[in-house]
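User: Before I run my own analysis I want an independent prediction to cross-check against. Here's the chain; please return only the structure tokens and, at the end, one sentence I can use as a sanity check.
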Amino acid sequence: MAKLTPFTIRRLASGDIDLARELLAVFGQAFEDAPTYTGAQPDRQYLDKLLGRETVIALVAQQGAEVVGGLVAYELEKLEQRRSEIYIYDLAVAERHRRRGVATGLIAQVRTIASERGAHVVFIQTDLEDDPAIQLYTKLGTREDVLHFDIAVT
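Assistant: Structure tokens:
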């Protein structure tokens, strides 16, 4: 079994632009999609505004000063009832830091934030082929098999 790596989790806020960019680099490498995550990043003003929103939850896991993982989640306010849901949109851990509790720690932190905000549920999607993610999420929650569709904007 891999030795557990001590790490800290920090919620990003306005002013944490450099850490946000480091997190985007981790996403790009983990998802093998660097052009999307690092090729056309928004300017500092946009990132600063986004990180200042209470409904945007950006967490980084750090080992020392190094960003080893993180997640970005969004609070979605609902129309049918006075409640919200938290959608974890991106979650990744650098390859050499996987299977050491980082993703579980990040999810635990977002669950705490969701509870503090009075959210109804936290949810996440994964690809059918991503067995490690499926195993992790199965341990933490209830599986729902759904279909996802991207609808182009004209």
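Sanity check: The helical segments are 17-30, 34-38, 44-51, 102-116, 131-140.
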